[in-house]
């Protein structure tokens, strides 16, 4: 591998500025021939999906300069989108590879949990933390995977099914009527329509993950916010478990150092430090039930298609209440991979009304090489189909 990379690092105060040993993933790509050309800004304490940093500013989204780049690995995504590097590394706990990849119109891969070493990476929430990577070229994305993934590559496998959850695609603001059809037409052209299965994912998860009932409320999902009740409950369970682990990892340092944190981050950190965690035991049950349910649905080489994010990147400086609504809708989608520990890839389709549009594919935990290779096969055809669909819009 002879290529250039950028690294997302935690930035802030105190502990975050102390010298630390290089993460194993950094050493791995350097030993494989990559050249590090820079370290990049990310959200404080990896606790946002917007990409804004109170201390260092917001990296400019090259594909939509008036929009947020997405976080927390915002600088790494921007470095790739701006063609400053061939690929970059970042972390994804709740969505911090997938969201900036979608917002910046590039490829982004969140590996299966524990598929890539997190040694010497500052933990945010260790049972969710993953090290992922960005690229513009699917060949480079696969190449990085051959270096970082700890599982053997194995023989190339054909997909057994492509599950398209129409309920998830109808939650999109726009262009909801196009993205699933672009995917379906591409799969039909390359593999045949017999692979495609339509499913109401929200109903399936509600039925197969009974412990979710402990997080279902009267406000879980509603027509106005276009959220699916079971997925909103899944998101609530994910965020609770993340707060618990974040508090265990960082409460002592935060209480002793009292760092100045930016708007949004300060509130989320405070929420984590003051949470009571009554339903915590159910989170672990939900995780096991969800992984089993999705493993049954997909099998060894099935793929679940999803919108990566619910709408185009939010505008810079958007009022807090609207950003929180976006976060809630986004996490209802992002929590599927997070709680199941499946791998997920963001594939950019191109631009619709001058804004980047993407689709995501998920596969079972451990099927990382399969998903990367399958996405590489789909990539060009998906973008061609998207260009035809949006021509003249």
Overview of this protein structure:
By secondary structure, this protein is an alpha/beta fold. It is built from 12 helices and 10 strands. The chain has helices spanning 24-31, 74-81, 98-104, 138-148, 166-169, 176-190, 201-208, 229-257, 265-274, 280-298, 320-340, 368-390, and strands spanning 4-8, 35-40, 87-92, 107-110, 130-135, 161-165, 196-199, 302-306, 343-352, 355-363. A 10-stranded mixed sheet has the order 2-1-3-5-4-9-10-8-6-7, with helices on both faces. α4 packs antiparallel against α12 and α8 packs across α9. The longest helix has 29 residues, at 229-257.
Task: Provide a compact summary of the structure.
One of its GO terms (molecular function) is hydrolase activity, acting on carbon-nitrogen (but not peptide) bonds, in linear amides. This protein is α/β, with parallel strands linked by helices.
């Amino acid at each position: 591998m002879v290529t250039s990379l950028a690294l997302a690092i935690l930035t802030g105060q105190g502990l975050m500025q102390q010298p630390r040993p290089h993460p194993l993933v950094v050493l791995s790509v350097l030993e494989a021939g990559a050249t590090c050309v820079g370290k990049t800004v990310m959200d404080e304490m990896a606790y946002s999906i917007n990409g804004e940093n109170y201390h260092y500013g917001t990296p400019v989204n090259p594909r939509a300069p008036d929009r947020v780049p997405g976080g927390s690995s915002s600088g790494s995504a921007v470095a790739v989108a701006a063609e400053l590097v061939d690929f970059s590394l970042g972390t994804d706990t709740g969505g911090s590879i997938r969201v900036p990849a979608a917002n910046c119109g590039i490829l982004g891969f969140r590996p299966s949990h524990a598929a890539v070493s997190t040694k010497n990476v500052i933990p945010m929430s260790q049972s969710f933390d993953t090290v992922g990577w960005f690229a513009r070229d699917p060949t480079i994305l696969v190449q990085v995977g051959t270096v970082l993934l700890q599982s053997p590559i194995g023989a190339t496998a054909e997909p057994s099914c492509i599950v398209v959850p129409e309920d998830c695609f109808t939650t999109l603001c726009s262009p909801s009527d196009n993205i699933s059809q672009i995917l379906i037409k591409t799969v039909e052209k390359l593999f045949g329509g017999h692979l495609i299965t339509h499913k109401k994912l929200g109903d399936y998860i509600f039925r197969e993950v009974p412990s979710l009932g402990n997080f279902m409320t009267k406000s879980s999902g509603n027509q106005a916010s276009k959220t699916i009740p079971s997925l909103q409950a899944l998101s609530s369970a994910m965020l609770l478990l993340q707060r618990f682990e974040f508090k265990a990892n960082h409460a002592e340092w935060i209480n002793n150092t009292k760092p100045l944190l930016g708007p949004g981050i300060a509130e989320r950190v405070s929420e984590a430090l003051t949470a009571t965690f009554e339903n915590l035991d159910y989170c672990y049950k939900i995780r096991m039930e969800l992984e089993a349910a999705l493993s049954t649905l997909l099998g060894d080489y099935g793929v679940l298609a999803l919108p990566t994010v619910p709408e185009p990147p939010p505008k810079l400086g958007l009022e807090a209440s609207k950003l929180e609504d976006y976060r809630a809708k986004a996490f209802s989608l992002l929590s599927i991979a997070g709680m199941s520990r499946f791998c997920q890839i963001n594939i950019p389709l191109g631009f619709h009304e001058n804004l980047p549009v993407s689709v995501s594919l998920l596969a079972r935990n451990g099927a990382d090489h399969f998903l990367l290779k399958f996405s590489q096969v789909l990539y060009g055809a998906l973008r061609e189909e998207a260009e035809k669909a949006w021509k003249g819009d």
